[in-house]
Amino acid sequence: MDLWARVGMVGALSCYAHRKKNVLAQAAKSDGESGSGRPELKLVQVLFRHGARTPLRTIPGIEQVDWDPTLLEIPAQTKFPYIVTNLTGGPRPFSPYEENYKKTVLKGGVIAGQLTKVGMQQMFTLGERLRKRYIEESNFLSSSYKSSEVLVRSTNIDRNLESTRCLLAGLYREQKEGAVTIVTDKAESEILYPNPGNCQQLKLMHRDGWASLNLHQDLLEDLKNIKQKLGISNEQKVDFIVLLDNIFAEQAHDLPSYPVLKNSMQLIEQRAIDSFFYITKNNSREVLQMTVGPLLNVIEDNIMKAIEPPSSDIKTRKLILYAVHDVTLFPLLVAMGVFNSKWPPYAADVTLELYQHSKDWFIRLIYNGEELIPRGCKDGLCPLEDFLNALSVYSTEPQVYKMICSQTEETVLQHN
């Protein structure tokens, strides 16, 4: 069944085949403003990576840099009180990831994966950019936080929750009406990152993908050369993703990286990207359905509710924020056809704007402040039908996700 039949929206959107070119011309100049003859901004969805943090893992076999606890100090302007609940308003779920990070104490005394004051400032700056666009220039959002206007969702990981706080501080400048709530889900059912915890097929694929890296001789040769220059023995397990993670973290905080790592930065980033593609089988259709399919389905659902609210008594939100990770943005950009062969940096954001012009609907995609043309589209302001049809092959409803992820007991045993 095609996308429009599935969501029952055949009559909601008009045919785009005969749309006039001047609609796009006017829309391109509107820059989010609404007015006579111009497209009206209806919904903004922002998916962002957290700010700079401490490394997730150390590089084995070499001396660590010093991660001083003062790097975690909170800048005053980024303070913005919030509470965390589960998806239904109950208590915050337990976070196994945070418990795991505590097991890795870096030189200097801080633990792995923690948002730093550099990262906090990055997120505050992103919030200021959103404020300028959606409050100061377009008057789309209220100047103060309102829960009726904004939905905020994050993975249940401290650096993401704190990044969200800093973004909101930059967006609303301490102005809020009522409590600020960030909703999150338990780890086993989270959809804001590729989740092998609730997808057996994805777990097996990742396991096989890591094993397949040993078959790529060019990649292994490059890794061997870098390990030799660093003085790391062959017995020490290290990969390009770990190397890149440490370089990004050190450079973001002006900490001294090994000259070998600094001089090999471009190669390490490319090989980390190659490794990610190998592990995920080049982000095939099935892989994208398992990694970002459920998230794409939620994004589509948000759009449909903005077009046709489920109830006249319910005021749909104008802004939806999702605090995600680099491993979320990577396949998301691939699915949208705009991956630029660069690892998503700290505080990277993918923003989707939904516009209405008469009976027509459009999507604008912005990545790190730059307008891009997504898959299936010819212009920056893309007919919604074209956009959703292109993504429909990856968008995954819950029951479809469960089917794709399921494995027979015999298949699981074969991989164990």
Describe the protein's topology.
Elements: H1 3-7, H2 21-30, E1 40-49, E2 83-85, H3 96-101, H4 117-137, E3 145-146, E4 150-154, H5 158-172, E5 176-177, E6 181-183, H6 200-212, H7 217-230, H8 240-252, H9 259-263, H10 265-279, H11 285-291, H12 293-307, E7 319-324, H13 326-335, E8 349-357, E9 360-367, E10 370-372, E11 381-383, H14 384-391, H15 398-405, H16 409-415
Parallel strand pairs: 1-7, 2-6, 3-5, 4-7
Antiparallel strand pairs: 1-8, 8-9, 9-10, 9-11
Helix pairs in contact: 4-5, 8-10
Protein name: Lysophosphatidic acid phosphatase type 6
Family: Belongs to the histidine acid phosphatase family.
Catalytic activity: 1-(9Z-octadecenoyl)-sn-glycero-3-phosphate + H2O = 1-(9Z-octadecenoyl)-sn-glycerol + phosphate; a phosphate monoester + H2O = an alcohol + phosphate
Going by CATH, the architecture of the largest domain would be 3-Layer(aba) Sandwich
- Count of distinct strands: 11
CATH fold type of the largest domain:
Rossmann fold
- What is the CATH first-level class name of the largest domain? Alpha Beta
Q: What number is the mean pLDDT?
A: 89
Q: How many whole angstroms does the radius of gyration measure?
A: 22 Å
- Tell me the number of helical segments per DSSP (H or I, 4 or more residues long): 16
Beta-strand percentage range: 5-15%
- What is the CATH superfamily label of the largest domain? Phosphoglycerate mutase-like
Indicate the structural class: alpha/beta
Give, in order, the helices and strands: HHEEHHEEHEEHHHHHHHEHEEEEHHH
How many distinct domains?
2
Biggest sheet overview? 7 strands, mixed
Helix content: 40-55%
Shape: globular
Please give the oligomerization state of what you see. single chain
State the end-to-end CA separation: 36 Å
Low-confidence stretches at least 5 residues in length (pLDDT < 50)?
1-35, 408-416
GO molecular function, one term: lysophosphatidic acid phosphatase activity
Protein name: Lysophosphatidic acid phosphatase type 6
Family: Belongs to the histidine acid phosphatase family.
Pfam family, one: His_Phos_2
